[in-house]
Amino acid sequence: MHYIGSKEKLLPFLKREISHHVEGSLHVKSFCDLFAGSGAVGRGFNEEVLHVSSNDVEYYSYIINHAYLKTSSLKDYTHQIDELNQLALTQGLIFKHYALGGGEKRHYFSDENAQKIDAIRQHIELWYHNQSIDKERYYLLLATLIESVTYIANTASIFSAFLKNLKKTAHTPLYLDALHVRENREENRVYHNDSNTLIKELQGDILYLDPPYNLRQYGANYHLLNTIAKYKPFKPKGKTGLRKYYSSPFSKRKSAYESLKNLLESAKFKHIFLSYNNDGIIDNNDIEKLMKNLGKYEQVFQEHKRFNAKNATKNYKTIEYLHILKKFR
Fold it and tell me: What pLDDT score does 80 carry?
């Protein structure tokens, strides 16, 4: 799925630098991805380290990361996907609020796809309520639906607004594709919490930080994924149908630096790696000064193409800094 700030294409760079700066084999080290997002980094290191801890304050992210990092059995998964793909259409919450046919003038999905989302989401809930599936399988199926709807949504890749007319891919019928997940170790952990609260409860070897770096709020940009994930009645607000969302202090000029400072000071990890690009709210020099007060500091960087929701074909370049801290104990 297209995701703002995804580090999927930077994984070779991250793996190279983290492996270089951490003493000994990664296979005996714990790895924590505190701002997991779509989970690209946690998945990328899952087979490289002893175990992975993943966290994100957004519920849709928690579900996706739970599916990729906590799934322990794939038995009957494709059979269940086939059954969900064959369901009859249903008019529910998504059709009512986010398709033109629902009458509220929002155009996030075609009428048919909105009804298909409702049918699949309701059936997954029915299976879970009837104990036909356990919580692990429930999250796996929800993650499958969440990722699948991103490909047929009538948006510019994020959900802060919809397009006036249905684009070509939005006409494509929704079809669930099985996720490429592995059967995971029991030691992996997935959390759904505020990062500055959770960090006080964690400790380990490697801490990877990829906090929001600009004024965009993920809860607003991906609100519809949370709506599908939670699937509870509520009153959408405004033209775009927003729900109440978490407002990150890392996306505010007045609080971003102090939030990072508090997080780093609280972190009980020997090796800390912070991804932050040249468009960030916090100045690069301020990050350097802060980390130098906490331990041995280095900085590396790599230029890469930045994902732009308005025009994904243009070549927007950005510099990704990796701030490296070996923290004093």
Answer: 98
Contact 274, 299 (CB under 8 A): no
Residue 67 lies in a domain: no
CATH number for the domain that contains residue 274: 3.40.50.150
Query: Nearest 5 degrees, angle CA 220-CA 224-CA 228?
Result: 140
The domain containing residue 87 runs over which residues? 72-180+217-239
Could you tell me the two tokens for 90?
């249903």
Q: For 265-281, what is each residue's pLDDT tens digit?
A: 999 999 999 999 998 99
Q: What is the pLDDT of residues 3-38, one digit of tens each?
A: 888 899 999 999 999 999 999 999 999 999 999 999
pTM attached to this predicted model: 0.94
Instruction: Concatenate the DSSP letters of all residues of 153-216 into one string.
Output: -SSSSSSSS--SS--HHHHSPP--------PPPTT-EEE-S-HHHHGGG-EEEEEEE----SS-
320 beta partners: 277, 302
The three-class DSSP label of residue 6 is: coil
Average pLDDT over residues 114-132: 98
The per-residue pLDDT for 11 is: 96
Rounded-to-integer distance, Cα 203 and Cα 15, Å = 21
Structure tokens at 20: 């270089």
Residue listed under structure tokens 């779509």: 38
- Give the separation between CA 189 and CA 182, rounded to whole angstroms: 15
Exposure letters 12-33 (e unless 16+ CB within 10 A, then b): ebbeebbeebbeeebeebbbbb
Total domain count for the chain?
2
Which amino acid, one-letter code, is at 323?
A: H
